[in-house]
Specification:
Layout lengths: L17 H15 L5 H15 L5 H12 L14
C-alpha cells in the first residue's frame, strides 16, 4: 500500500459515464425491437415462475414453503401452474 506524500497535491479524477449509459440503453432498446412489450414479458416471467414451482412433491413443497417463510423466495401462486 502506498502512502500519500503531503508535498504532492492530490488530483481528483472523475469520469462521467452518463453519456455512455444513455448510449447503452439506446442499444438495449434497439436490440429489443419496436415490438417488445414489457407487460407481456413480465407476464411471461410470472407464468414461468409459477410453472417452475408447480407440481411439487410433499417434501419439495415443504422446502419451498420454508424458503418463502424465510424470505429467500417470493410468495408465488401456491405451487400450482398458471392457467
Amino acid at each position: 500500500m502506498h502512502s500519500h506524500d503531503p508535498a504532492q497535491p492530490r488530483v481528483d479524477f472523475t469520469v462521467d459515464l452518463s453519456s455512455h449509459e444513455m448510449l447503452r440503453r439506446a442499444h438495449v432498446l434497439d436490440a429489443l425491437g419496436s415490438d417488445w412489450d414489457p407487460v407481456a414479458a413480465l407476464r411471461g416471467e410470472e407464468e414461468a415462475y409459477e410453472l417452475l414451482y408447480s407440481g411439487l412433491g410433499p417434501e419439495q413443497q415443504r422446502v419451498y414453503d420454508e424458503l418463502v417463510a424465510a424470505g429467500v423466495l417470493p410468495r408465488g401462486g401456491g405451487g400450482h401452474a398458471a392457467a
